[in-house]
């Protein structure tokens, strides 16, 4: 795993060697610890709400700024990217 950053109690982003930044929203119905795996149709206990594509090498760091309005990612491609984040995630956005 390259990076992980929480936006709120149920929303976070993850990044890894696949060069993508994934937005997640956890299901509150299942509070037990679980492993989440990215897929096209979601995962048990949570689902991917957004995919940010733009890095050309693995992403190593993620941080939310401006009260969650922007996300900054840094990767092995020597790029730092700033992403605009809506206040609510919508699947497929």
Relative strand content: over 45%
**Overall number of structural domains:** 1
- Termini separation comes to 23 Å
Sheet with the most strands? Answer: 4 strands, antiparallel
How many beta-strand elements?
7
Strand order in the sheet with the most strands: 1-2-3-4
Runs with pLDDT <50, length 5+? 87-93
Report the principal-axis shape.
Answer: globular
**Count of DSSP H/I helices:** 0
Range of helix content: under 10%
Structural class: mainly beta
Question: What is the CA-atom radius of gyration, in angstroms?
Answer: 13 Å
Order of helices and strands: EEEEEEE
pLDDT averaged over residues: 76
Structure description:
- The protein is built from no helices and 7 strands.
- It has 93 residues and is an all-beta fold.
- The protein has one domain (3-84).
- The strands form 2 sheets. A 4-stranded antiparallel sheet has the order 1-2-3-4, with no helix packed on it. The chain has a 3-stranded antiparallel sheet with strand order 5-6-7, with no helix packed on it.
- A hairpin with a 4-residue loop joins strand 6 (70-75) and strand 7.
- The chain is globular.
- The two termini are 23 Å apart.
């Amino acid at each position: 795993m390259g990076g992980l950053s929480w936006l709120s109690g149920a929303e976070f982003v993850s990044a890894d060697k696949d060069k993508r930044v994934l937005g997640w929203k956890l299901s509150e119905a299942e509070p037990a610890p679980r492993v989440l795996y990215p897929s096209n149709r979601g995962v048990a206990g949570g689902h991917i709400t957004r995919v940010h594509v733009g890095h050309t090498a693995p992403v190593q760091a993620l941080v939310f700024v401006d009260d969650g309005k922007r996300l900054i990612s840094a990767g092995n491609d020597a790029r730092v990217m700033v992403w605009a984040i809506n206040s609510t995630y919508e699947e497929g956005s």
